[in-house]
Amino acid sequence: VKPIKSYDLVIIGSGPGGFEVATKASLKGLTVAIIEKKQIGGTCLNVGCIPTKSLYQSAKMIKEIKEASQFGVSVPSYEVDIKAIIERKDQVVDRLKQNIKTVFDQTWVTTYYGAASFIDEQRIHISNNIDNEIIGFKHCIIATGSREFIIPIPGADLDNVLSSSDLLDLPEIPKELVIIGGGVIGCEMASIYSQLGSKVTIIEAVDRILNLLEKDISSRMKAMMKKDGIEINTSTKVTAIEEYDGMLQVKALNKKGAEVNFNATHVLMAVGRQPNIEHLNLQQLGIDYNRKGILVDEHFMTSKEGIYAVGDCIGGRMLAHTATFQSYAALNHILNDENQIRFDVTPSCVFTFPEIATVGMSEEEATEVYKEDVKVSKSLYRANGKANAMGATDGFIKLIRHGDTLVGAHILGESASTIIHQASLIIEKKLSIRDCVDMIHAHPTLSEVLLEALRGIIE
Ligand SMILES: Cc1cc2nc3c(=O)[nH]c(=O)nc-3n(C[C@H](O)[C@H](O)[C@H](O)COP(=O)(O)OP(=O)(O)OC[C@H]3O[C@@H](n4cnc5c(N)ncnc54)[C@H](O)[C@@H]3O)c2cc1C
């Protein structure tokens, strides 16, 4: 029997919930090991945030070429090389993966490759094709992430019915792509592939796409997607997928209960994700969990002292930065450090054309909580000098005020994912709107759209 190596902290999963805090903990003086059963970087780096944003950038380039004549630039022809696009995406991913490995080496984080499962509250079993190993821990952070949820309908297992991971590596551009699910992943993929040249149709079961966002944002985005040639069917429930004449046929029921069919060369299932919690031996260890994920307290500690769980595997808002900051909160608790992270102020971005970004309360939530003491203002990109110069006039910023500060900000428009952080700062630090309005904003910038919305809400 090999002697057991033991660590102050063992992290299971090297996604955003795992890798950053592994190095941080090591720099704080803990002995740290991280266990990964697939690829360093997790979903985010390998089949999530980074690869999609790499493809998004290629799609954006195509959109700009198509619109070049508006700027007095003529581009008579262009070609889309999907293999080169995927190659570029892989290079971006590989570079970032290498960075993580280098940082692990520099900070003495030990990496184990294999699937982890608990033996008891001090030991973890790691198995891969070659070896079995047991390591010990004082503290553990479970950051095992999530995987695609596949709706169990007939035909879900047909060739060319794809998950988002499959689509990211598809060496051809689907001629007709039907996307089941009009959430964030569905809408981002629709935006990318419609620019790449696919005829895209979204089928969404509820009555609007991006239904977790403000109603005015989702309805405006629907109109903009339609303008880009994307067909959107809401209140439509998919019942089956069949093979028909060498094509796929997606069968669904519309709002009136009538059967409708959609032809496709490829189908993307983007109906949500489920936590990776099987095979960890949670039940035997007495760690509570349910269908949505592992249950944790306000410090992200599970029902077992010293064992924490963060990120997609605890359900909730499945975002990379949520996973990372939850992990920081867990580390703070392990180190007895003060925790100041406010999870109610988590920005969330959608990379469509244009981008969407949102933070804090929706108008509906704020009205429910604060009743009459809520004020809403909207400023339009159309009125902004830089937006006009950029040809990016479609969009708005909506701010929600309670008392002297902001409680919510919602942006649809160019660079929304950058501008949102100014609003986040105001909300998180409860800055007075008066002070923010007096802060000089450079001209001409898109940040002035936010300044205008702030001015609008103070009057
Ligand atoms: C297509 C797509 C696009 C996305 N875009 C964005 C975006 O733009 N912005 C954003 O914030 N979020 C985005 N997300 C969500 C984001 O990727 C996740 O929220 C994030 O990766 C969660 O991090 P995590 O650390 O909890 O889990 P993961 O990143 O899933 O990492 C978990 C890791 O644990 C490993 N693991 C699992 N079980 C075991 C085990 N038993 N033993 C050892 N290792 C194990 C897995 O192999 C995996 O590598 C996107 C997701 C997808 C699918």
How would you portray this structure in words?
By secondary structure, the chain is of the alpha/beta class. It contains 14 helices and 24 strands. The site of flavin-adenine dinucleotide has 37 residues, from β2, α2, α3, β4 and α9.
Mean pLDDT: 97
Distance between the termini: 74 Å
Helical percentage: 25-40%
Structural class label: alpha/beta
Tell me how many strands there are.
24
Please tell me how large the radius of gyration is.
24 Å
What fraction of residues sit in β-strands? 25-35%
Bound ligand species? flavin-adenine dinucleotide
Low-confidence stretches: none
Biggest beta-sheet profile: 7 strands, mixed
Count of alpha/pi helices: 14
Estimate the global geometry from the Cα principal axes: globular
Question: Can you describe this structure in just a few lines?
Answer:
The chain is of the alpha/beta class and 459 residues long.
SSE layout and pairing:
Blueprint: E1 5-12, H1 19-27, E2 32-36, H2 42-47, H3 49-66, H4 82-106, E3 110-113, E4 115-120, E5 123-127, E6 132-142, E7 146-148, E8 161-162, H5 164-168, E9 176-180, H6 184-196, E10 199-203, H7 215-227, E11 231-233, E12 237-244, E13 247-253, E14 259-264, E15 266-269, E16 273-275, H8 282-285, E17 289-290, E18 293-294, E19 307-309, H9 320-334, E20 348-350, E21 356-360, H10 363-370, E22 375-380, H11 385-390, E23 396-402, E24 405-412, H12 416-428, H13 433-438, H14 447-458
This protein binds flavin-adenine dinucleotide.
Flavin-adenine dinucleotide binds at residues 12-18, 35-38, 42-44, 47-49, 52, 115-116, 143-146, 164, 185, 276, 279-280, 311-313, 318-321, 323.
